[in-house]
Structure formats: C-alpha cells, structure tokens
Amino acid sequence: MTILQTHHTTRSTSAGPRAAGLSPWLAGLWSVAYLGLAVLHLLRDTGAPWVPTEASVLGSLSSPDVSVLIVALGALGLVGLALRSRSPRLAGSLLVATGLVTALVLADARSLTFLGYLPMLLLGLVGVGPMDEVATDRLVPALASVGESVGGLALVLTGVAALRATTDRPGWPVATAARVCRWAVAVAIAVPAFYASTRLAWALGIPFGVREEFLVELGDGKLAGLGLALAALVGCVLTAGLVMRWGEVFWSWLPVIGGRPVPVRLALLPSVFVGAVVFSAGLAFWRLMWTGQITDIPGNEADWAAWVPELFWPLWGVALAVAGLAYAARRVGER
Question: What count of other Cβ atoms lies within 10 Å of the Cβ of residue 85?
Fold first, then answer.
C-alpha cells in the first residue's frame, strides 16, 4: 500500500466517527418527521408544518405549496442519507444542497424570533411580561422554524462529513484562517452592534432613526426591542471570543473547566447555526423590499431604523459562519 493510499485510508477512517455522530440522526429525524407532517397536511388537512408569514422568503406561498417543498426536501434528505456508504460524493453534494435550502430558505425569521425572544416567551407562558398574551401563538410556528434550521444544519454537516471522506485536500493555512477570522469577526460584530444601538435608544426614549410618534405607538414593544438588543450585544461578546484568548482556553476562575481548552465545536456549531438563522431572517426583509411590502412592518418609510439594520443581516450571517469556520481551521491547524 502506498503512502498516499495509507493517508487516504486513515483520513477516511477518522472521518467515519464524525459522519456517524449526531448530525446524521438529526438529519434523518428531521427528514422523516417533517416529510410525514407535510404528507398528512396534504392528504388529510391536518396541522401544517409551515404557516405562511411575511417574515419568510416563501411568504407568498400557501401552506400546501410549502408542504410539497417539504416533502421533496425530506425525500432528498433520506435518499442522501441512504447513499452515504455507496456513493459518498453524490450523497454529500445532495445533502449539502438540501440542507442549505432547508436552513436558509425554508426556515425563516421566526427562528431568530425564537432565539431573541426566548426569555420573554418563557415568561409569557406563565403570564409574566409584555408577551403574556401572544407567547403561545408565537412559540409553535417559531419552534417549527427552529426545527427547520436545526434539520438543515444537520443535513449540511452530514453532507460535509461525507465529502471530506472522499478528499485529501488540505485545509486553510493557519495564517490565512487567522486573517479571515479577524475580518469576519469585525463584520459579525459591527452589524448586530448597529442594530442594538437603535433598539437601546428606543428603550431610553430616544427616537433614533424613527419618529417620536413611532415610539409612542410602539409602547411595551420597546421592552421587547431592549431584550433583542441585549441578546445581540451578548452575541457580539461571544463572537469576539473567536479571536480572543478566552475563546481558546476557558477562564481559569471557572469551576471544573477553568484552564481547559475550549472544544472547537463549542464555538463552531453555534456560529454556523446562528449565522444561518440570521441569514434566512435577513432574506425575508430583502423580500419585503423587493415586493414593496417593507412598510407593512411597524412604522413607515420615515422610520428607517425599524428596517434598515435588518437588511444587513445576510452579511452578518455569512460573516458569522465564515468566522466560525476560520476559527475551527486555525485551531485545528495549530495542533
């Protein structure tokens, strides 16, 4: 056996555990569950796995229309999973393509709504806070969208693992990965910081980018905006960790894990997941711009701060995912 063959065999074997991890199970679970729900909705008019909303690239479609799409995506996901051992390259390509459509197009802004409003939604379920009357109505469709985001990401990761098992191409050089990570982190911090500054100003009664009448009409919605702003700022801090020492080694004062290396996947997976969620939410705002429906959201054209920051979300999503990938490439390359 040649050195190249030995290297290829070792690489394929080491990729096996990754491909046989949690991602294929989540991908299979999503494909079976959502395909089944979509078929039942089409045949027996049961509850739809997807509810029409303007906060989606597919907002102009009906639930039956999207159910047909879900059936196709679920079937493609199952075919890709079944072909992994026989034709890993074909299976990997099919799974990545299916996963990207699922995570970026089928999933929508409700995934981001769930992540941003989660603390308030949980309080609303017990009748506390400004969302006590709408928490349940928002929770179910948002959870369905989160399931699409998770399922799509699982399909992509499973497909990438299958493709990696068929190639010996080296990863990014450490220096290149570090440089890319710094630039991507800068963008992934600037965009949510801009968004957060508008919502913080509103919470303080400052009409930044909006009319004073808009703040009055917003009422308790300013508190929800404050919650989203704080969540965005927390995300900025965590994103900065991708280029900071504490993003590689846990702080020494932390119990049990203090001083230990930060697992690469602990930073990589949230970066890619949140990046996908933010990207799909941003696409929804671009759809509203394209169709002239942007004024349907609270406020009007004069209240530019209500919708302009969201137009940068696709850039934020791409930057965050790239930052996570570059961080992982740098960490792995330094070992």
Answer: 10
Q: At what angle do helices 313-333 and 264-291 cross, to 10 degrees?
A: 160
Beta bridge partners, 249, equal: 261
CA–CA distance, 248 with 259 (Å, rounded to integer): 10
Distance CA 212, CA 225 (A): 16
Q: Which tokens go with 200?
A: 């913080």
Residue 106, both tokens:
């089928």
Query: Tokens 């700022």 map to which residue?
Result: 233
**8 A C-beta contact, residue 127 and residue 145:** no
User: For the segment 8-35, what is each residue's pLDDT rounded down to a tens digit?
Assistant: 333 333 333 444 489 999 999 999 999 9
Chain Cα centroid distance, residue 271: 8
Mean pLDDT of 63-77: 96
Query: Are 139 and 299 contacting, i.e. CB atoms less than 8 angstroms apart?
Result: no
The helix or strand, by DSSP H or E, that contains position 154, with its residue range, turns out to be helix 135-164
